[in-house]
Amino acid sequence: VGVTYDPTGSGTGIEAASNGSADIGLSSRALKEEESSAGLNGTTVALDGIAIIVNAENPVNDLSVEQIAQLFTGTADWSAVGGDAGEVACIGREAGSGTRDGFESITGTADSCKLSQELTSTGDVITAVSQNPDAIGYASLASIKDTVKALNVDGVTPGEATVKDGSYKVQRPFVLVTVDGKALSPAAQAFFDYATSSDAASIIAKAGAVAVAG
Question: Counting beta carbons within 10 angstroms of the beta carbon of residue 111, is it exposed (0 to 12), middle (13 to 18) or buried (19 or more)?
Answer without folding.
Answer: exposed
